[in-house]
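Researcher: I'm preparing a figure for a lab meeting and need a structural model of a single chain. I don't have an experimental structure, so a prediction will have to do for now. The sequence is pasted below. Please return the structure as tokens so I can convert it later.
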Amino acid sequence: MLYHLLYPLHELSGAFNVFRYITFRTAAAVVTALALSLLLGPWVIRTLRRLSVGQNIREVGPQSHQVKAGTPTMGGLLILLSFLTSTLLWANLKNPFVWLAVGVTVAFGLIGFADDYIKVKRGRNLGLTSRAKFQLQLLVAAAAALVLLWLPDRYGFESTLTFPFFKQFAPDLGWFYVPVVMLVLVSASNAVNITDGLDGLAIGSTLIAAATYAIFTYVAGHALVAAYLQIPAIAGVGEVTIFCGALVGASLGFLWFNSHPAEVFMGDVGSLALGGAIGIVAVLCKQELVLLLVGGLFVLEVGSVIIQVASFKLTGKRVFRMAPLHHHFELKGWSEPKIIVRFWILAVLFALLSLSTLKLR
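Model: Understood. Here is the structure written out token by token.
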């Protein structure tokens, strides 16, 4: 909105020409989302407390988590309000990629909101059934994939799948690209949801992933840089950098309140939406497979659950003391802050490795 209001003024004064630059508007989006989070955070937390929107802790989880019962949840509404407002203020609203990213994020957020709302109403940690939640996620993901296939050719978006380290290998999947997009979106959404188990862990990891994809989207939207690095150039996808920047700012602001000991939890309305946001950005900049590196920490968390379940069903034995992985280290005696910081370090290392794919082949 501000872009459309202020940039046309460059004809009156050259100073307003700065609003054409994605880098400037991305920085502004970061600051705006951060400021909104910090300003609105106390009010959101008070409101959630007044409405008795408290977290219900699973009895099967670590006993140390029982002290967190009653902490306001659904704080993901603060994240969504902050970074979506910032995105709409600073992005070019004529860009279809921006609206697709916003639409997917909101849709996954609504699924999470329904899940959280049912949990609060029932007073138990049981919301939507796993089947219902999964079906809704598949529906949103399928709609997003179909929209991508129907985008005008002038945006240069194709149904190809790029492979890191093998830049000349990019098979065109055609309609098979639809299930690939669905897999990416649903997996990313659930991966962040699974990781959201310790104060600040999921939001800090999301922040790192969003910052990493801000680089990928900017490069993919810059024809000369994309050509030099031999990655797909997609006209207009550079505007999604602002979306990523706003997500970074909102994540920083939420972390202020979600750091240990947390004053508020994001709930499924936050975790499902954030995972969906990261997933759709990975798809838009044609770096779907790199998400396995960018979100390497999320992969470890999901992998630990899969291994635990498979091992128990096949052998009757557990590999980890408890899954996801962060609970395993809790039961080994690691303090919560130590687990969080060490997992953040891993997330940073995975992010740096993913950025190396821009040059290595």
